[in-house]
Amino acid sequence: MKSPGRTTLCFVIIVIYSSRVTLNLNLESIVHPWILHEHELVGEEPLRQKRAVAMSGPAAKEYTVDIEISFENASFLEPIKAYLNSLSFPIQGNDTDQATNILSIGVTTVCRPTGNEIWCSCETGYRWPQEQCLHNLTCQEHGSSPAGHHCSCLKGLPPKGPYCQLKRAVTLRMSVRLNVGFQEDLRNSSSALYRSYKTDLETAFWKGYSILPGFQLVTVTGFRPGSVVVSYEVKTTTPSPELMHKANERVSQKLNQTYKMDDSSFQAVTSNETKFSIIPEIIFEGDTVTLTCENEVLSSNVSWHHVARRADIQNSSRFSIYTFVLNNMTSVSRLMIYNITQGDAGDYICKLTLDIFEYESRKRVNVTPIRILANEEMKVLCDNSPVSLNCCSEINVNWSKIEWKQEGKIYVPGDSETDSDSSCSRYTLTADGTQCLSGSAGTAVVYSCEFISAHGARGSKNIEVTFTSVANLTITQDPISVSEGQNFSIKCISDVSNYDEVYWNTSAGIKIHQRFYTTRRYENGAESVLTVKTSTREWNGTYHCIFRYKKSYSIATKDVTIHPLPLESNIMVDPLEVAILCKGSHYFKCCVEEDEDYKVTFQVNSLSFPAEKEVNGKQVCYQFNFKANSIPWCPKTVDVFCHFTNAANNSVRSPSMKLNLVPGENVTCHDPSIGVGEPGKVIQKLCQFSNRSSRGGPVGGIVTYTCVGSKWNVKRNDCISAPINSLLRLAKALIKSPAQDKKLPTYLKDLSSSTDQMAHEVSSSPGSLGAIVNILDLLSTVPTKVNLEMMMHVLSTVNVILDKPILSTWKLLKQQQTNHSSQLLDSVERFSRALWSENSTGLSISQTNVQMKSVVIKRGPRSGKSYKQNFLFPHSDLWGNVAIDKSQLESLQAHSSIIIVTVAFPTLQSILAHDVQGNNFANNLVMTTTVNQTITMPFRISMTFKNNNSLGGKPQCVFWNFTLANHTGGWDSSGCHVKVEGNSVFCSCDHLTSFSILMSPDSPDPDSLLKILLDIISYIGLCFSILSLATCLVVEAVVWKSVTKNRTSYMRHICIVNIAASLLVADIWFIVASTIRDNYYLLNETACVAATFFIHFFYLSVFFWMLTLGLMLFYRLVFILHDASKSTQKAIAFSLGYGCPLIISVITVAATQPQEVYIRKNACWLNWDDTKALLAFVIPALMIVVVNVTITVVVITKILRPSVGDKPNKQEKSSLFQITKSIGVLTPLLGLTWGFGLATVFQGSNAVFHIAFTLLNAFQGLFILLFGCLWDQKVQEALLKKFSLSRWSSQHSKSTSLGSSTPVFSMSSPISRRFNNLFGKTGTYNVSTPETTSSSVENTSSAYSLLN
Could you tell me where the beta strands, DSSP code E, fall in 1170-1301? Predict the structure, then answer.
């Protein structure tokens, strides 16, 4: 390669003469014609050829020649460019071609190696054509240039098309100063001076600026003072500063020196090619406004000017200027004005400066304040009426957001609605009083409507709303600050008594159930007291007392602070019981599931010891190593407690830990965790602290160990798995939570999922199974409505625990507690009663081990339909259906809609207990039907079961009575009737609950002949008994004076009368009790209790008066010389006859009725299954029978073997005979009656015992009339004397005389001989003519007269 100077010269020569290439250069030209405006040479024709330009014809044309030059060394480029810039143009042609001139030479495109690529970039003032940018890779990106854009650099030289081209033409507004004096003619464009200046200057300008690329024209536009400032415009492409300086120098050279042009005064301002934009179009105070200037001139020298302030804008907290070059093609400058104000309004100038060039653009910014129209004050009554607050903007624009806020002592939310067409927002609120504070002045709340533009402007308007309540409330003034586990109460007092509803809410709007508060109404006010017996941390917060009257509400608030403190039930202790040697030691531990700042101490007797804290994950344990030598006594049993004290200085004591200090002589079992023990010793330990604990969380339940030999063996494992135990703890916390109804759905879902996942573990863990039943029992007490989804989760859980593989686990569970199955059934019934749905078509859930069907019956035409549901369990081969007649349903839905739910279980019957006697068993479906209403009258329901009689026996319709067996539950057949037809068993019952079929081998058929016969005997016998007892009392009244002449007779008839009267009243109450139960009057439970009490009392009175009669006879015959007054005997008799029965009856009812186990569930009589209250009648009655029989034997013996000096007269002997006869008859009869009754209790008793018992019991009154009254000779004589004629009287006197002369108990009589033979006695006693002293006659006569 030659020198750059020679290379350039050769290049010029080639262009001028189109000659051959004389240097080692690769030259290739493409000729483009360019026609000059206004300075075109006429007569020249263009001629294009490769590597040359030839002239042809007289006319001159101007051409642009593109020449591609390749260099072996890239360093040659810059010297060549510098040389070309130093040339003076035009360059005249040579001698042979003087008409060819070179006007300018410039480099347009330069290709350089960049890495592994060749980048071809355009020089200043040039750019690649748009089509090249579209189809080739640019240097700035790997894709094509965006549509509509030019580019300045390409990767590689395009194979076709032009090189870089001149940019589009712009108009440069330029000025230059002439250092000459200004003349006024220069202001006049028509003056000669003006035209002269203009012509000379334009000629010089043409000559100088013609070298600019794309130059088209130059025009002088005027003159102004300042010496002389020439204003002119140049139309060309945007030139480089270097080329512009060169052109200015040429102008100075071409202009006459008389103009004295100042070379340094050239200035240029381009035409409005700068793109100026403002966002947003409508600007509000507070907006963030963006002003953007875009220019194709690449320069970062951009300034912003605020015209009104006459100052340039600099970066600050409110103004931000950011200038950058976009894609190496466009200069972009952005001015951001934050939180614009009215003072920022005005004209803004964006000025880009490049050397002498200034690119300027101007825009005006208008700032508008946000004006909002609204009423500034409103008054609202808290009467549950909707109220609207309205806000509108003065300018209708599309607001980004309209927000409503409120500030005040109360919170009354509402709903906003925006109308985009009118730029208005409406806020509708309903003040229901739950948010309104009491007080006549009302409570002011400021509502703000805030209009927010898309660019951050905010304008707001305040509306003050005053809420007024109806009633004034006063709430507990003292601050409430308690610890967990403690109770608290809040009293809310209203100054008016007229209200429709009172309730309490939490600050979150959760309504507290009414079981937590009580409400009372006074004459001039009312009060409501919220009482929480066991507080938890969930009760921490603000509570609202709300009184509602129609649509008006009054509210008072109270803050409650709950300090953390573990509940006693949540403190896990270890050990529960332990035995250690007198010189040993053992660790005691108390653990909780929370890490709080507690002070924990252990108490052993009166000693207190600090505890050591140990944190293991979420569990925090406090332990203490007890040493036995700290207590001076051994052996000894002491209780150990740990005390938790919180920051509020409240404390709670853990469950007791029992410590046994033993000498150790018989100790065989040793374990550091369980302790020591003798053979057979049983120890219980929490599973959490046994070797059965789990890493998945604390396990629950208890494991029982027994000492066998020298080892502790597990006797019973009732551990609860960690997940189930966690659910159990959550359930216990949930029922104490004020938000229990909100948490219940989620909890039921978690329970169902966990039970399903742990079905295998539950099948082998009685503890986990029992825990799930306890969870369901706890959750069923939550007072809330149950929807279909919640019921599905409940029955899904039940389905798992009633699966056949788990039934064996139920048997293990029943060994510990027998009421879990009853508890499960009760829980399902409670959930069923809480089920609710608006879907009148009914709900249905079907699982393998449980099915549920229900129907919602609403008031109206649908009420005429009956209820019928069918159930089929193919896996268990069981089926059944239930039906309720439409007439029964019509009686239920008088006031509202009802929902009837039936749930059927195919396997539940196998885990429910047998009947009360334990012999009958259920082997069929268990179907429970519930109604979400309280039933106050008999309700008929019909069911059909499959006759599953493979085991034989008679089917019996039964229901599960939850109150039997001390509330553990049992089968009961009250109110149910059965009918068997082939493969079906039809049951009809007059109440709702859980029903099944009980198979009883000996159960008599309710429609059998024996049952009918017994009923007939009972009713006929009772009628005869009542008539006979009434007759007996009438007879006694008629003959009373005749038969009560001595104290003995008087007391005997007193006893007979009270026996008859007591039995008469008892029989009447028996009929009343039978009527109550036969008609199943649910509202007459109190009447049944009363009937049972009186039956018990009067039947006992019958026996105790019999005892009184016997004791009186025993007293008169044994203690002959002792005599008591009539009043004393009467007092003793009435105390014994009525006092003892009254005491026994009252104690019985007082001890059993508070627990509602006084009477039987199927009869108005003393309970036997739950409390054995029947013994309060059976034991006294049997004891009296035994005593009376004994007295009878003693009396007879005494009469037959009188002691020396005993000389009863004939009258006394007759009285003694009547007494003996009465007791001998009455006592065996009454004793035999209850003896037969005892026989009927045993299973398999013969029908003869039932008939005999019914006969003897029903005809008791008749027996008393016959044997206790009419058989008495004196009664007969008195009756004959009362109603006979004179001859009947004489005959009777004669008979009496004969009878007196021959006593019945004389040894010559047949009766006497028979008794003498019985007792082995012989001889004759003459008792007909006794010899008496005055004292003996007095004593005996008075004694025997009492009996007669």
Answer: none
d(CA 1085, CA 936): 12
Q: What are phi and psi of 278, to 5 degrees?
A: -130, 130
Please choose, from the candidates 1166, 1163, 1135, the residue with its C-alpha nearest in 3D space to the C-alpha of residue 1149: 1166
- Cα 1010 to Cα 1038: distance, rounded to the nearest angstrom: 41
φ/ψ region of 1156 (left if φ > 0, alpha if ψ in -120 to 50, else beta) reads left
Q: Name the 3-class secondary structure at 732.
A: helix
Q: What's the sign of the alpha-carbon dihedral 903, 790, 775, 962?
A: negative
- Name the strands in the sheet holding 941-946, side by side, starting at the edge strand that comes first in the sequence: 867-873, 878-884, 941-946, 984-989, 976-981
Partners of 1196 in beta bridges: none
Interaxial angle between packed helices 1273-1283 and 1009-1043, expressed in degrees from 0 to 180 and rounded to the nearest 10 = 70
Structural contact between residues 1275 and 1035, judged by C-beta atoms closer than 8 angstroms? yes
Q: What is the mean pLDDT of each run of 10 residues along the chain (1348 residues)?
A: 44 42 34 36 30 40 75 78 75 62 80 83 77 73 46 78 75 87 89 91 88 84 89 82 84 84 82 78 91 82 88 89 81 91 90 79 89 87 83 87 88 86 87 66 84 90 83 85 91 84 85 86 87 88 87 85 90 90 88 89 88 86 87 83 92 92 86 89 88 67 90 88 88 84 88 89 87 91 86 93 87 75 88 80 86 80 71 87 80 68 87 56 80 68 79 72 75 79 82 47 50 75 84 86 77 85 87 67 69 90 85 75 76 90 93 83 75 85 81 69 52 56 53 56 59 71 75 76 54 36 30 30 29 30 26
Rounded (to 5) percent helix, strand, coil in the chain:
35, 30, 35
> Rounded to whole angstroms, how far apart are CA atoms 114 and 124?
20
1264 DSSP assignment: I
Closest C-alpha among 567, 640, 553, 579 to residue 604: 640
Number of residues in the chain: 1348
Who contacts 785 (Cβ-Cβ below 8 Å, separation ≥6)? 834, 835, 836
CA atoms within 13 A of residue 76's CA, in its CB half-sphere: 15
Q: Which residues lie across from 549 on neighbouring strands?
A: 552
How many C-beta atoms lie closer than 10 Å to residue 629's C-beta?
10
Cβ 201 vs Cβ 255: under 8 Å = yes
Global pTM reads: 0.48
Burial class (CB in 10 A: 0-12, 13-18, 19+), 73: exposed
Residue 755: what are its φ and ψ, rounded to 5°? -65, -40
Rama region for 48: left / alpha / beta (φ>0; ψ in -120 to 50; rest): beta
Both tokens of 769, joined, read: 């199974």
d(CA 1033, CA 1275): 12
Residues 6+ apart with CB under 8 A from 197: 186, 220, 223, 228, 230
Q: In this structure, are strands 480-483 and 552-563 parallel, antiparallel, or unpaired? A: parallel
Q: Which positions ≥6 away from 281 have C-beta within 8 Å?
A: none
Tell me phi and psi for residue 554, to 5 degrees: -125, 140
Beta strands 867-873 and 517-521, pairing class? unpaired
Cβ distance 768 to 762 under 8 Å? yes
Distance between CA atoms of residues 380 and 444, nearest Å: 10
> Taking Cα atoms as reference points, which of 753, 764, 685 lies closest to residue 721?
764
**C-alpha pair distances (Å), 1274 with each of 1049, 1211, 1329:** 10, 10, 22
φ/ψ (deg, to 5) at 623: -130, 160
Are 757 and 796 within 8 A, CB to CB? no
- Nearest CA to 655 among 587, 577, 598? 577
Closest CA to 461 of 398, 371, 545, 524: 371
CA nearest to 722, candidates 671, 664, 752, 765 = 765
252, 263 Cβ separation under 8 angstroms: yes
